[in-house]
Specification:
The chain is α+β, with helices and mostly antiparallel strands. The protein folds into 2 domains: 2-178, Gcn5-related N-acetyltransferase (GNAT) (Aminopeptidase, 3-Layer(aba) Sandwich), CATH 3.40.630.30; 185-354, Aminopeptidase, CATH 3.40.630.30. Helix content is 28%, strand content 35%. The strands form 2 sheets. Strands 1-2-9-3-8-7-6-5-4 form a 9-stranded mixed sheet, sandwiched between helices. Strands 10-11-12-13-14-16-15 form a 7-stranded mixed sheet, with helices on both faces. The chain starts with a strand and ends in a 7-residue tail after the last strand.
Length: 355
């Protein structure tokens, strides 16, 4: 979530409005400084107007959807002060933004995103003067006599070089990242282990759509501490939890087989949300986060799940998020004297399919 703020009152209004909305990261681009204890100032966005030097030397290439190119661009974009995801790249591409990149051998050295005389993003592998100058020369071919460019405070050499040119400060935004607030999604810590056990005990005590029953659940605090340690190393496992007032109300994990080469590119998804917190978008947010991570990860090609046929709402949600039913294990589940199918669903996570 991203918000633009003009005064301190807007902070409070927005925080009140999003307390019950599930979220992972919230960023404020503020024209005023904030002293709220739950706000973390991570830097500044400088919006500059710069004169075109009219060198018009085109050395960059236009972006086109290609998996290896997408992965390379996303890898470079991780240097951004704020998150830049595959969905941002897709939206810029589909909305007619000019996306140009400079590549040497198999490495992206720089790329920028431009539309309507505004350069929204510029990324560099290294901010050396030659690369910055080459980038500005390429940009000059597509802009007017003067144009607007966004520079972030972590791009120190870039900012210094631009300051030595004919630039005008149009506006500065303080960038704040919101710490845990309301319903939020995060990665679990070891001290969450007991809370996770309490969460699963509540889930398993009141569910007819899961394979495990409460009397079959035997994980200990130590077990979850070890599981969380593995997940932090992405050792075949990635875990997300949803918290509210420091209690865990949702969980979603993916795991993949790192020991068998022929299966290691397939990840499996599992998810649960406490009944009293359903229909609020928590499951959607959790699953979308895992989908995004898989799409951006060249080591994962496929995400899959299994769901009981009596879980109608979950099936509908999975289809809405892009999962496709691939098969059924007929009458594989026996609950309350009734048989149900296990439905197998899959999602191919190649980024090129989004463009």
């Amino acid at each position: 979530m991203f918000f633009k703020i003009k005064d301190k009152l807007e902070f409070i209004e927005i925080l009140d409005s999003i307390i019950k909305i599930p979220k992972r990261d919230v960023y404020f681009f503020s024209e005023v400084e904030s002293d709220f204890y739950y706000m973390n100032n991570i830097g500044t966005l400088y919006v500059l107007e710069i004169e075109n030097e009219k060198s018009k030397e085109k050395t960059f290439k236009n972006f086109f959807p290609d998996n290896s190119l997408i992965y390379s661009i996303l890898k470079l974009s991780k240097k951004s002060l704020i998150p830049f995801t595959i969905w941002d790249l897709v939206n810029f591409y589909k909305n007619g933004y000019k996306i140009r990149y400079l590549k040497e051998y198999n490495k992206i050295l720089a790329f920028y995103i431009l539309k309507n005389n505004v350069v929204d993003f510029v990324f560099f592998e290294n901010e050396n003067i030659n690369l910055i100058t080459q980038t500005l020369k390429d940009i000059s071919y597509f802009v007017n006599n003067s144009y607007v460019i966004n520079v972030y405070s972590n791009q120190k050499n870039f900012k210094i070089l631009l300051s030595n040119k004919n630039t005008i400060d149009i506006r500065n935004f303080y960038i704040y990242k919101l710490n845990s607030h309301g319903i939020y999604i995060t990665n679990p810590q070891k001290n969450d282990s007991k809370k996770i056990i309490n969460f699963y005990e509540k889930v398993f005590s009141n569910s007819t759509t899961l394979a495990t029953q409460l009397n079959e659940f035997n994980k200990t605090v130590k077990d979850f501490e070890e599981i969380i340690s593995l997940s932090k190393k992405l050792f075949g496992l990635r875990i997300l939890v949803t918290k509210f007032t420091d209690k865990i109300i949702g969980n979603a994990d993916i795991y993949w087989n790192i020991q068998r080469q022929r299966l290691k590119k397939t990840a499996k998804l599992g998810i649960s949300v406490l009944e009293s917190f359903r229909n609020m978008g928590i499951a959607t947010t959790l699953i979308n986060n895992h989908i995004t991570w898989c799409i951006e990860n060249p080591d994962i090609h496929r995400l899959e799940l299994e769901v009981f046929s009596n879980n109608i709402k979950a099936i509908s949600l999975y289809k809405k998020l892009g999962f496709i039913e691939e098969g059924r294990r007929k009458e594989a589940v026996y609950i309350d004297s009734k048989y149900f199918d296990i439905i197998m669903m899959g999602y191919i996570t190649e980024p090129i399919f989004l463009f």
